[in-house]
């Protein structure tokens, strides 16, 4: 009789253990695969921007007014899409006007970025902070870089 009581006690814990196992499994799957569900189409570009550009142009793309030109809502950015690969790779050391304000702070070279990485950065900044510009392909970056070599 005792054996039956013990068996019943063990059997009564099985549904609780199964529930707990399922819950733990679901949480594990959620935490492992949640990053893969990032809906941002420009994640690589954003990561590259944070590493190579954000120090000057800031997280919100507004930069330091009067010193570094903004890229958020920038008329210069919109009007110079063909030159962006050159600007990113070789920098800029001449006066420019952005949104009616003059800037003459040297933009450093960034020769470590590949053509694909440059395309990713351009696509990110072209679609961040309210900017709206067409997709830039690897081939377009190659063409742009040929013009400035």
CATH class of the largest domain: Mainly Alpha
Overall CATH architecture of the largest domain: Orthogonal Bundle
Report the principal-axis shape.
elongated
Could you say what the CATH topology of the largest domain is called? Cytochrome Bc1 Complex, Chain D, domain 2
N- and C-termini, Cα separation? 91 Å
Strand content: under 5%
Enumerate the strands of the largest sheet in spatial order, edge to edge or round the barrel: 1-2
Largest sheet: 2 strands, antiparallel
Provide the structure class: mainly alpha
Number of strands: 2
Order of helices and strands: HHHHHEEHH
Over all CA atoms, what is the radius of gyration? 26 Å
Name the average pLDDT: 86
Walk me through this protein's architecture:
With 149 residues, the chain is mainly alpha-helical. The chain has two domains: 2-37; 43-148, Orthogonal Bundle (Cytochrome Bc1 Complex, Chain D, domain 2). Helix content is 54%, strand content 4%. The chain has a two-stranded antiparallel sheet with strand order 1-2. The mean pLDDT is 86.
Can you summarize this structure?
The protein is built from seven helices and two strands, in the order αααααββαα.
Kindly list the characteristics that best describe this protein.
two-stranded antiparallel sheet, 7 helices, 149 residues, 4% strand, elongated, Cytochrome Bc1 Complex, Chain D, domain 2, mainly alpha
SSE arrangement:
Layout: H1 2-33, H2 43-52, H3 54-57, H4 75-79, H5 84-90, E1 96-98, E2 101-103, H6 115-125, H7 138-148
Antiparallel strand pairs: 1-2
Helix pairs in contact: 2-6, 5-6, 5-7, 6-7
